[in-house]
Amino acid sequence: MVQLMSRMLLKTLRDAPADAETVSHRLLVRAGYVRRSSAGVWTWLPLGKRVLENVARVVREEMDAIGGQEVLLPALLPREPYEATGRAGEYGDLLFQLTDRKGSAYVLGPTHEEIFTQVVKDQATSYKDLPVILYQIQTKYRDEARPRSGVLRGREFQMKDAYSFDTDDAGLAESYRLHREAYVRIFTRLGFDYRVVSAVSGAMGGSASEEFLAPAAAGEDTFVQCTSCAYAANTEAVTTTVPAADPAAHGPLEELDTSDTPTIDTLAAHLGVPASATLKNLLVKVDGEITAVGVPGDREVDLGKLAEHLAPATVELVTAEDFTGRPDLVRGYIGPQRRSFPYLADPRIAPGTAWITGANKPGKHARDVVCGRDFTVDRYLDVVVVEPGDPCPSCGAGLEIGRAIEIGHIFQLGRKYADAFGLDVLGKDGKPVRVTMGSYGIGISRAVAALAEQTADERGLCWPREVAPADVHVVAAGKAGQTELALEIAAKLEAAGARVLVDDRAGVSPGVKFTDAELIGVPTIMVVGRRAAEGVVELKDRRTGERTELPADQAVVRLT
Ligand code: ATP
Ligand code: MG
Ligand code: MG
Ligand code: MG
């Protein structure tokens, strides 16, 4: 069906929402693709839904091609399995939780490892039932601390999550390889510029893990890549456990009042150091988690640089109450390997999100407080600064540093979930075999925004053809006969297999229609205007701006 703009629920906006910080947020709202419902929760309008479906279609095709079987699990899940694996605690406030009328505890699924494991435990009994790859495209819920950037980081969002089940390590490696290759095909087809980088396995547990990152200024991930070899890694990928600080070694405590909310400058003044000073054991609370900017070896935190990065953020002090009653925080900390990445660019220390403290009493702060004595943390962020041009750990050539959006993530989970739920199948010898798993995510809704980030220009969205809401946007300039011709051409284009959007709106000036067409970003714009009476139309390539005038019939042939 030709999509008629006169009938479509579509209103383009001249101005972006005041809080829109990113290109995709501004443009997807202005062009009428999405509409905010509440913080981090979005309505997909007709144009947006088409793009979302196009992304989902490509993902489905490639998942099916590696033998994935599509299923659909509930989003409303009992809390118990997430308790069993400890992930309820790990996810913490990220988890949306609710209670039913009988008092039973539920969560809205943030990701489904637990539930898929239970499904396979129910369904698979023998090694003959494996390997199996299951996937779904489904709504996920995470109560993100900072649901900004429009659909890039939603609290409700669409994810493709897949899970592989194998009887041995070689099988898992093969399932992982299949997914990796499928992801390469998916992101290539979608029109992404992307990198595959090694990643930390984080809350998922497990070992081998890679992320698919789409370089973009709006990204919240930082990665390094070698200018010469294939080395690329997420900043999170290089952490390892290092010994906790020696509780005995501590300096004098100097209390300060925290009734105000100091900026980094006032913090520096409180601490009695210049804003350019270096500090050790600087604590940050990021996304609600107490974290320390740690100091491996003799490297120190440069407060001046941190200030620069945080500006114009408000830096809040936290109090010792954050640490009291939290024995779980006494676990030592995870620190860096010798070489790591710039804490200044760590996405978790993004502007407006860091709280800095050195707390030892409620409401008080001190310098030279000591980890393990005055407080404990479960994790240190590394602060070794890597400057562009630093040597690549793999080949020694220069490193570059970039910002990117995480669009996909693949994990070899191993037996963590199978152990938690006792997922065994009968092996060839009749003895039970513990199953080994992988999990593989793609942010479907995030991919829409990430593509917008990478492809938009100053005039608006500019979709790669595979995901565009239409192939051709026919603009009827509006004079007598032009709309009729436009509809006639549109019908021919559709009959020949093209997806067509027609701007047949009456009483809208040609100028507004052209501007809207650029904003909406369909790859080819056809103008039925000035020379319509002669049967001549103009084709404009949205990306290059290249224009060609040609007879309508030839245009149809060229576009199909
Ligand atoms: P991020 O680091 O951006 O918070 P994540 O590592 O927590 O993402 P995963 O648990 O790996 O995310 O989920 C798989 C994929 O789901 C991610 O690679 C990303 O594309 C997408 N995704 C995760 N969180 C969100 C969100 N809040 N909004 C939209 N997409 C998301
Ligand atoms: Mg996350
Ligand atoms: Mg991540
Ligand atoms: Mg991830």
Structure description:
With 560 residues, the protein is α+β, with helices and mostly antiparallel strands. The protein contains 13 helices and 33 strands. Strands 4, 8, 9, 10, 11, 12, 13, 25 and 28 form a nine-stranded mixed β-sheet that branches. Strands 1-30-29-31-32-33 form a six-stranded mixed β-sheet, with helices on both faces. It has a four-stranded mixed β-sheet with strand order 21-17-18-24, with no helix packed on it. Strand 6 (96-99) and strand 7 (105-108) form a beta hairpin. The longest helix has 22 residues, at 169-190. It starts with a strand and ends with a helix. One magnesium ion is lined by residues 406, 409.
Low-confidence sequence ranges: 201-206, 237-264, 274-281, 293-303, 307-320, 326-371, 374-385
Bound molecules: adenosine-5'-triphosphate, magnesium ion
| Major pleated sheet | 9 strands, mixed
What is the CA-CA span between the terminal residues? Answer: 16 Å
